[in-house]
Amino acid sequence: MASSSPDAPCSCDCFVSVPPASAIPAVIFAKNSDRPRDEVQEVVFIPAGTHVPGSRLQCTYIEVEQVGKTHAVILSRPSWLWGAEMGANELGVCIGNEAVWTKEPVGQGEALLGMDLLRLALERSSTAQEAVHVIAGLLDRYGQGGSCREDPEPFCYHNTFLLADRTEAWVLETAGSLWAAQRIQGGARNISNQLSIGTDISAEHPELRSHAKAQGWWTGQGLFDFAEVFSLTQQPVRMEAAKARFRAGCEMLQRHQGNITAEVMMGILRDKESGICMDSGGFRTTASMVSVLPQDPTKPCVHFLTATPDPSRSVFKPFIFEVGVSQSPQVLSPTFGAQDPVRILPRFQTRVDRRHSLYRGHQAALGLMEDEQEQAQQLRKKQQRLEQEGLEALRGLLTGEQTP
User: Which sequence ranges form a coiled-coil region, renumbered to this chain (predicted)?
Assistant: First the structure.
């Protein structure tokens, strides 16, 4: 498979605040998932499990070897695939992923999607650092690749990840099976569809530098700057737009430094002027998530998810891992089994209605709001017209001129 037009729109923004940037003793994670505007994102709870040794696990496109035990997870995911755009596990690990394009070519075949890597890491990791190593190991063994949208025209990319737990956060950026990671033990950080790890590398693929040198991207002299070495020389339009969102996100985090709360993160995710809350052409923010991860292990982590598009017009609903917690049917999309267009080769030749009940209700409410706004706008225009006619009549009376 090949990637689509280099200027195809695609974006996401992830944020994290680690004390002392947070207003409370907690790590705060946030993400907007920007996807094709008619794509439905569902919220799925998957309980912890034990698995038979040697068993296999079907991901979106390929099978992988299953592990003996998996953690319970809550996932916000495009309803047609196995993985997730963002989510958390019962131990307080949160991950969000983003598309990225580098000098390393995008693979042509189907492998693990970045969203599959995210879910696998949540199911198999007890800390953010362990999740970095889980993803690195899966990349080494299975690679990443395959179309990332439900469309006959393939759209492929590599991935960056923001990973957080109760004590710290990590940024993991990939180029094919190669990767670099940066540890964040304090302060605020964001990522936005571009490589952002420079010389401050905490861990890396053992062949990262030798590969760059062999390709002629790095001389082998001086400091190694991952973003500078692996970023495309000529950035496509989508990545130029990401730079502006990245700067805006940095500025907003800096403005609230020391006072970042869940409400502050929700406000950032709702910011339309910066483009962080996206509604542009064929893409928009289809789901959002904010998580509060207290440093005190006796306090529960709280995860807020919208399950509906546009966080500025959605409610963040809380979720806590507790004994007896179960799936909410209102945010679960219908399934189509072997008849699902993702399962029939060639893939995505037909479309199915994946809307869950909350999504339908949200659409209906937005329709009423838009009708009311249209009626209010027409009323304002009528008022302005009458006011203008009145002013013209008054002017005629004062000047003795007849108004037409």
Answer: 362-389
